[in-house]
Structures are given as C-alpha cells and as structure tokens.
Amino acid sequence: MEALSSHVSRTIVTRLVLPPDTNHMGTIFGGTVLSYIDEIAAISAMKHSRKVVVTASIDTVNFLSSAVVGDILTLEACVVSTGRTSMEVFVKVKSEDLESGTKTLTTTSILTMVAKDKDGKPTQVPGVIPQTLEEERLLKTAQQRKQHRLEMRNQ
Amino acid sequence: MEALSSHVSRTIVTRLVLPPDTNHMGTIFGGTVLSYIDEIAAISAMKHSRKVVVTASIDTVNFLSSAVVGDILTLEACVVSTGRTSMEVFVKVKSEDLESGTKTLTTTSILTMVAKDKDGKPTQVPGVIPQTLEEERLLKTAQQRKQHRLEMRNQ
Amino acid sequence: MEALSSHVSRTIVTRLVLPPDTNHMGTIFGGTVLSYIDEIAAISAMKHSRKVVVTASIDTVNFLSSAVVGDILTLEACVVSTGRTSMEVFVKVKSEDLESGTKTLTTTSILTMVAKDKDGKPTQVPGVIPQTLEEERLLKTAQQRKQHRLEMRNQ
Amino acid sequence: MEALSSHVSRTIVTRLVLPPDTNHMGTIFGGTVLSYIDEIAAISAMKHSRKVVVTASIDTVNFLSSAVVGDILTLEACVVSTGRTSMEVFVKVKSEDLESGTKTLTTTSILTMVAKDKDGKPTQVPGVIPQTLEEERLLKTAQQRKQHRLEMRNQ
Amino acid sequence: MEALSSHVSRTIVTRLVLPPDTNHMGTIFGGTVLSYIDEIAAISAMKHSRKVVVTASIDTVNFLSSAVVGDILTLEACVVSTGRTSMEVFVKVKSEDLESGTKTLTTTSILTMVAKDKDGKPTQVPGVIPQTLEEERLLKTAQQRKQHRLEMRNQ
Amino acid sequence: MEALSSHVSRTIVTRLVLPPDTNHMGTIFGGTVLSYIDEIAAISAMKHSRKVVVTASIDTVNFLSSAVVGDILTLEACVVSTGRTSMEVFVKVKSEDLESGTKTLTTTSILTMVAKDKDGKPTQVPGVIPQTLEEERLLKTAQQRKQHRLEMRNQ
Fold first, then answer.
1. What was the ipTM of the complex prediction?
2. What superfamily does domain D4-154 belong to in CATH?
3. For every one of its 155 residues, what pLDDT tens digit does chain F have, with 9 covering 90 and above?
4. From the CB of residue F146, how many other CB atoms can be counted at a distance below 10 Å?
5. Chains with at least 3 CB pairs less than 8 angstroms from chain C
6. Which chains have 3+ CB pairs within 8 A of D?
7. What pTM was estimated for this model as a whole?
8. Nearest Cα to Cα of residue C82 among C131, C122, C126
9. Is E50 on the interface with D (CB under 8 A)?
C-alpha cells in the first residue's frame, strides 16, 4: 500500500451559525462544533482510506473563542498520521465575523478514526506524506499522543 | 457561596440510537455521542451554578465500544470539581443491548463549563462536595488535568 | 414469565428547552413535549419487555403549565400495568426554572405500548410489580382506563 | 365577535413517512404523529383566532393502525368548538399505501388550544359554525369532553 | 394506461415558519422553501404514478416575497404534464400573515419528477387531464419548457 | 466601492449523504441538495458583501445524476456577477463514490442573492472580478439570464 499525500484527505466545510445551534446568549453549543468536527474528520479519513470509518478517540479540545449567531464557521481537516488501521485527523475551526470579516481560531482538534471493511472489521490504511511544516510536526508527535490516550484509557 | 453536594448536579439522560444517528453500518456517529455529552454536561453545570454556561474544553475521549441502531444509551453526569467561574463535569455513557440488556461502557469524558452572567461575563460558582469515591478521586486529580489542558493549548 | 419490578423500566430523561422547540413567545410546542413523552415511554417499555415496541394509545394529556426557552425538562417513566402483549407506561414531566431551580409539574401522561417480535407480531410481556403507592393505585385503575379507551375508539 | 364557519380553520397537511421518523421495523413513531397533530392543530387554531396559540390538552388518542416508511400521511383539521379563549380542534390522520393507494384511518384526535395576546395572556376567540354532521356532533359533545378533562386533571 | 385527472395528484401542505427556518432577520431561507417544494412535488407525483419518484429538474424559481417567522405557508401542487416516465409538477406557495390573514404569493415553481420501479429504472406513468385553465395552459407550454431545460443542460 | 476578486466569495462545503437525506431507494432528495445549494450560496454572497442576504431567485436546475447514501458531496460556490444590490452565485455540486473515488457532476446552479442592511432594505454590493474562463463566460451571459428570469416572472 503506497503512502498518500495529505492533500488527498484535505477537506473543507463552511457552515453558518444558525439560531438552533446556539444557547440563550446566541453562543454556539460546544456539542454542535464537536459534531461538525467529527463529520469533517470522518469525510477526511474516508477520502484517505476509501473505507467506512468510525471515531476511536478525540484529543483534548480547547474552545479558544466562541462563535455567535451569524458567524461563518470554516473547518479544515486532513490526515496527519496513520497506524495499521487507524488515521489521526487534524481539524482546525475558524469563525468569521460577518461584518468585519475577522477570522478567529475557535479550536483545533485531533481525532483518531478507524477504517472498517464490509464486515465491520478494522482494515488496513495507506500511510500519509505531510505537506506542511505543521503536518510534519504532527506526524512526529503522533507516538506521544498515542501514549497519552492509552494512559487516559487506563485511568 | 456554600459548596454544593454533587447530587445537586447529578443528571441522567436516556436516548434511543435511531437510524439518522448512524452510518452505513448502523454504528452511531462519534459526533452524535459528543453532542449528547455536551448537552448533559451543560444541564449538569446549569443545575450546579443556576447560570447559563458555555463549554470551555473537553478532555481526551476514548470511544471504548460503539453503540448500534436500537441500543439504549444512558448518560450520567455530575460536577466533580470547580474553579472560580468554571466547573468540571464528569460524564459516563453506557450503551445497552435491547435483547440481552447487557450494558457496555461506551465512553467517559470530562468537560469544563464556564458560568456566564446576563452580560456574558464569567461569574462565580459554588464549590462541590463529592459523594462517591470516584468523584473524590476526580476532585483530587483536577489540578493535574488543568495542567494538561494548558499544555495542549500552548502547543 | 416472571413479573418484573417497576424499577426495571424506570427511565429518566433530562432535556434543555431550546429555541427551535418553541413558538414566537418562547413557549415549548405541545408536540415537542408529546414526542419526548413518546420516546421515553418507548424506552421504558423496551427495558421491561426487551422487545421493539409501538405506541397503541395515549391517554388524555393536560398541559398544566408550559415550559419556556432555557428551562430544564425532566421526564420520568415506568411501566405501571401490563396486558398479555401491552404495557401501560406512566410519564411525569417537570420543568425547572434555571435561575430559581423551582420545579413545576408540566404534565402527566399514560401511554399504552405493544411489544412486537421480529415479524412485527404482538408478543408476550412480563407482568409488573409496583414499587410506590402511586404505581399501586395506577395498577388498580388500569382496567378502568382500558374501558375508557375502548369507548373513545368506538365513538 | 362574530362566529366563523369551520371552513376558516380547515387545514390540510400531507407528509411522507421517511426513515428518520420510524423505528427498526420501519413503523412510524407515535411521537412523530403526535407532533404533526399538534402542529396542524396550532395552524388551524391560529387561522380561526388570528392569534398565537398554545396547546392546553390533548384527548385520548388511539393509534388504530400504523404507517410505514414510504406511506403518505394526510392530516385534516378544523376547529369544532370554542370556549371564551380556547378552541377544540379535531384532527384526522390517514395513511396511504403508495402502491395500492389504499387509505387507512390512522388516528383521530381532539386538542384544546388557547389563544394568547402579545403579553402571553389568554385572549377571546370567535365562536364556530359547524359545516358537517360530524362537526355538529362534536360541537354537541364538547361539554362532555371538558368534563372528562377536568376529571383526569383532578386525578 | 389511462390518463388521470389532475385532481388525483392535487396535494396541499400547510407549514408554520419557525425560528430555525429563518436567518437573523426572521426571514425564511430560500433553501427551506425549496425543500418544502421538492417534498410536495414528490408526494404529488407519487400519487399520480403510484411509484417512487426522483427529482430530475426544477425550473426557474423567483422568490416574489419572503415569509417571516410566524407566517403560515400554504403549498399546493398537482401534475400538469407528463412524458413517458416523467411528470411535471406545478407548485404554488403562499404565505399568510397571522394577524391580518393576508395571503401573498411567495413563489410558483415547476419540477420534473421521474417514476422509478423497484430496480431504480424509469417506469411508465399515466397521462394527465387538466382541470383548470391554468393547468391547461401549463400542459400546452410543456414542450417549450422541455426545450429550455435541454438548452440549459447543454450550456 | 471597489470590485472584489471572485476568490473573496469562493466557498467549499463537503457533506456526507446520510440515511435521513434519502428516499426508499437510498437516493438523495432533490430538496436536500437544493437546501445545501441555498446555504452555500448565502455564505458565498455574505463573504462578498459582508451583509445579511436573502435568496431572490434560483435558475433552472438539472439533476444530472443522483447521489446515494455513503457518497461524499462537494459543493463549490463563488459570486460571478453583481447588480447594484444583488449577486449571482454559481454553485457546482459533485458526488464522489466512496470506494472508487470517482467524482460525478450532480448539478450546477445559479442563484441570485440580495444584500440587506440592518433595516432589511436592499443595500449596495461591490462588483466582482472573475478569475477563471468559466467565471468570465458567466459574467458575460448575466444579462441574458436576467432577461429570462423577468420573462418567467411575468408568466
């Protein structure tokens, strides 16, 4: 199986923050952002593996700022590291104020997705070739994150 | 402000896994589970603080097993530690097979919620008094998790 | 088939009243409450019978008070009487004002659910053993409600 | 305030039964039907009163048959009796098999809706003039149903 | 195959404009109206053909006025012309102001639906007999619209 | 007001075709595609004008092929011509088969969006500078499409 460029899995999603996605104060629910993050990560991992995928874990997520009704959310994702049957997907979420056009980093997140064959068994995925310095750095630190996930699981 | 028993914020949510919540293989989306987790954490923190709340962060989440169409999901949440304006909420998700009644731990998760006053400014919350050994342990390790979140943010 | 304690089917659901669930005046739609009631009744009857269930009827429902955006809804359900293939489920809905924590009874409701086997045929269910005085009273008056439903159907 | 013909409030809604509205066996959820019933009753009462309305109660509902994925649901509603600020709305639901075109009565239901002014206070509504024998009969038996609702409320 | 009266496919849908269907200014999304139009056109074509149908094209749609939160939308549809396996459905959308009862034409639209058999292959449909002058005119101009669609496709 | 490059409004949205978006045969509803098209067109026009926008019209849409459950939909949009207060947005929709990665053009569509100020009045928008040959061609033919829309409106 030949390794694929991270461009293969690069995925962009743009969404409007609408009233039903927000609380009393017009602030978007964390859960809405998380479900957008999970959806784009699944699409990105599906493009890389050409298989159905399931979410195995999601790393610490900090909501650095919070989007409000009327903002434009832009999500960008690509696969940054791979195991035998798993893929780590890096997702960046920015919110954009309609009037000023100012973009603010809302959150970054790393999810691990597992590819499944038709019987629902984990199945092999190609490796990934990073295309940016940020992706290269994330590939190098993949082992460290795996370690942290195992520790959290054992707790 | 007097500290409150964790019983005050204890919240239970039961949900059916329905076809629109699942992928081709009838497996629930990680994002759906995450949005249920965020909703129960918000309710739990609202009961503790009697304020509107927003999600500040979510800790590493491992999906230990995955629920399928027809399963019953049970989520349980309570506040386990507090800062001046923030609350850590511990959420446990179990899935239950309809026929056998077997319950499986699907995931555990810790979210940090911040209480907001009417102008959207962070506002003070009461402390929490743990009621189980598990909650006591989580109160003791709160500082450690805070440290980890800061590290992740700085990366 | 051995009768089961009503604890087996006891189910709790907590929900936030969100903007899309409400009309112009921020008051929750009756239909939203009814669909939450039907969902918890189905889960409760599924826990009792370990079968797929369908709703056969719903008794007179009075909306005693109406929840508004930002309220916390708590639903509690359990099986209170059984026929050969049917179960009566009692559902209580309370709404809780966020700021004051005051809980108000929004409605009580009784639904009849029928258990179905894999071919969609009605299938036998265990009896129920009430655990509270309220449940005991509801078991005693089950025959009376059945009578009323038949009358309504014949009209 | 002049009484209005029941034609003023006559409302028709046609819906497709789609996969997300159904359980494992492709049978529509009772709660979905109930929420369609509540929506059409609200529209019907709004047409009659020209006010925002809320649901006060719903009478015993029997699900005489159950619609499946791909069926066409037809709901028909009109106001059949009125109090000073309340309206009784009669709703008939039929499901239609796509291939054969056979229509089956799924349920009939009577809801009480209350008109509200801009401050959320109950406000006066016009009387109703029945246009069919069925509506005439329902107008005559309105008092009886009111009696039954009060009894149920007191229980 | 005998031609059918346009009454066979006549379909009415009434909907409330709710907060989640609208943007910041309380104006309904074009996309929401379009998805209501597609749904009623599908039901209308299903009633005419007694088959599952898919949308093949939608003609130029002008939004003549825009509905706001609290308006009642009324959609009316019927088949106005047919090909061997396709049906043209004419849809009229009116919005009604709650307080005044004034109805405004929001849009008119013509969609082409294709009937499919169980293997997903296009399948023959009956002809249509118009019942109003408007429908007669639309039947006469069907060929012209077909021409325009082909031109647009070739561009 | 200085004209803007079409890059300013270029918007990409990627979506998974999920079971609730599809009919009995697993084929996506035309209405679902249309509502995705309307959403991306709104975002694109908002980026160009930095104003809230409403849909004024949508041109003839041909569904050239139809996406099925599990496909990845990719929508791409940008402003291609402008009036004083209106913007024409060109939207291309492709569906991608998961296993083979084959992309098929599902539809192309042109929508006219109008910018609104805070009082809901139409407000001026910048011109647009095309960046591709396709966009240049669409800018040249804008007048022709306007003519066609007026004709359709007058019919």
1. 0.91
2. Hotdog Thioesterase (3.10.129.10)
3. 899 999 999 999 999 998 888 887 788 999 999 999 999 999 999 999 999 999 999 988 999 888 998 999 999 999 999 999 999 999 999 999 999 999 999 999 999 999 999 888 999 999 999 999 999 999 999 999 998 888 888 77
4. 16
5. A, B, D, E
6. B, C, E, F
7. 0.93
8. C126
9. yes
